[in-house]
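Let us practice reading a record.
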Amino acid sequence: QGQLTESGGGFAQAGGSLTLSCAASGIITSNPTMAWFRQAPVKGREFVAAISGRDDSTIYDDSVAGRFTISRGDAKNTMALRMNSLKIEDTAVYFCAATRSPYSSRRTDMYNYWGQGTRVTVSS
């Protein structure tokens, strides 16, 4: 059974930076597609970024493009989300997700594995 563990959430000031990390275990594929989603209070879970298992290509939501960077970690089945120029509206619980599919998706139902979430709070 696959398991995802996030770390790195916390508090930051607007304009600051944070890095989130995710480690996957038990997913029977050498290079899973992995993604970040986030959920703010009273909002649905929304796509942030994904990295393809096929070729490590990346996709971003328009709201974070140019500010956030998703990347594979040095350790197998790990990844990170570097968040720069944080805005108050980036405040949310961030979830790591993974799928054995080699293709990235912005849809939550395309991901089989989910972490418990890590909270990010951005203040002015």
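A brief commentary: Residues 42 and 94 are 14 Å apart (CA to CA).
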